[in-house]
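Hi D.,

Good news: the full-assembly prediction came through. Inputs first.
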Amino acid sequence: MLHIETVYKQFDNGFVALEDVNLQVNPGEIVSLVGTSGCGKSTLLRIIAGLDKATTGSVSIHHEVINAPHPDVGIIFQEPRLMPWLTVQDNVRFGLEHLSRTDSDAITAATLAKVGLSDFAHMLPRQLSGGMAQRVAIARALVTKPSILLLDEPFSALDAFTRTKLQDHLLHIWEYDRPTMMLVTHDIEEALVLSDRIIVLRGNPGRIHRTVTLDLPRPRKRTNTTLQQWKERLLTELDVSMAERSLAEI
Amino acid sequence: MSNFLKTNGSKSAAISTASATRPYRPPKRRRAARHQWAIGLIIPITLLVLWELLSRVGVFPPNLLPAPSAIASTLWSLTVTGELVEHIGITVFRVLLGFLIGAGLATVFGALTGYSRFAHQLLDPLLQALRSIPSLAWVPLFILWLGIYETSKVSLIAVGVFFPVYLNLMSGIQNVDRKLVEVGQVYRLNQLKLIGRVFLPATLPAYIVGLRSGLGLGWMFVVAAEIMGASKGLGFLLVDGQTTGRPDIIIASILLFAVLGKLTDAVVASAGKRLLRWQDSYSSHHQ
Ligand SMILES: Nc1ncnc2c1ncn2[C@@H]1O[C@H](COP(=O)(O)OP(=O)(O)OP(=O)(O)O)[C@@H](O)[C@H]1O
Ligand SMILES: [Mg+2]
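Then the structure:
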């Protein structure tokens, strides 16, 4: 169980990125965060991951307040963040150091196969395309089997084919291990296909503007009419918040 | 997805068979690379030949600028008496010992001040102040404190080596990408593991630059130390050549310094290159 309580975040420079964010995510739930660029989505994920501290308010996991990275939480950052000196395989293995070599070899190989990179295990990050690098980052987050998975626009660098494939794959993993997932995305369709709930954030400062609960069975068809209707509505809403922002900036 | 790949499969197979019928040719740049080092030799060899010719005709006075062949024969005679090996040996010994001490201390201090904010506030101002003293100004003090023998010489070299290594390592650590450090934090590495698995490899490029320039300064300072008082070593040979009016000895020593400096640098550089093969740099794409 993930509790986010009245989180308020002000950066050192005085900028308020989040204000009064309250959210409860149930075990196994998939929640998407959508919102215009700069409205505080990554900041919220960083606070949950224990990399940043809320100025006031708190985040707790299983009723344990988070002050530092929690072992049950995995994160996929907005950028791949691979260690340039490690091969693909060793990057994926990065979080498995406590295991024996044979165990981590097996898990690494299996995970690389899942993201379709078995043939590239011995390459260095500089030899990868952007999408391949992101898939390595996904594999690195998955190997530790976190019970809460934070994903910051994990698929935005990928082509449409790979993206749908990995979305399906993510659902597959979810069906298997039932991790709680918080997914930041700019792709409304992705949010609609994957999540139980969609949270619309609006800045600035970032606040929860709206919550959409999707009580539809998975796997969902992208062409489903209910989804299409929701897509229209959400897009208009994001559009409005965009327009308000640009007005405010003038 | 797999269907999509299949429809494309026949097409790519056709392409690969077409290229297989052609004999394999290595890319042009590769072949040229094998001879590239020779390009750098053209001008020195030309100058050498010119120098020898002009000396033979008598354009260069032999008491000021002896011919290359005269220098070579001086080198040879020093070699057969065994003198040269001794001079080279002691100089290399001084440089390496000074380098090890200077670089070792610099590694400890650079790591501390780069990694710990407190250590930085505590130590860096003092070290920066010491750095602004021209290192040769230490010579009289070192001689007074440590005598004219090896200790003062090695200390001077160590001081010279210390600062470039210290500065490069410290700023290298400070500039490690926060984003990579966060990955280590997410996997809850303790301080020591974070240093070993993220900071150390990420700092290596800057550290190697520091070691190389430190080594260069080490060679510079050994000359200073040996000129100021020594009975052996290449620096002594320089002074000896001057006092006995033998330009061939001076030039021979200079050449030896050049060769030795280049050799030791090449060792560090190639070790660095091996360790840094992962780097995505401009030069790694142009080799
Ligand atoms: N360290 C920081 N110091 C000051 N301001 C910051 C800092 N980090 C982020 N911000 C500000 O906080 C706001 C939210 O940033 P955040 O990265 O969370 O946005 P985002 O919603 O993830 O945007 P995007 O969709 O573009 O990734 C931005 O306006 C940004 O300028
Ligand atoms: Mg972001």
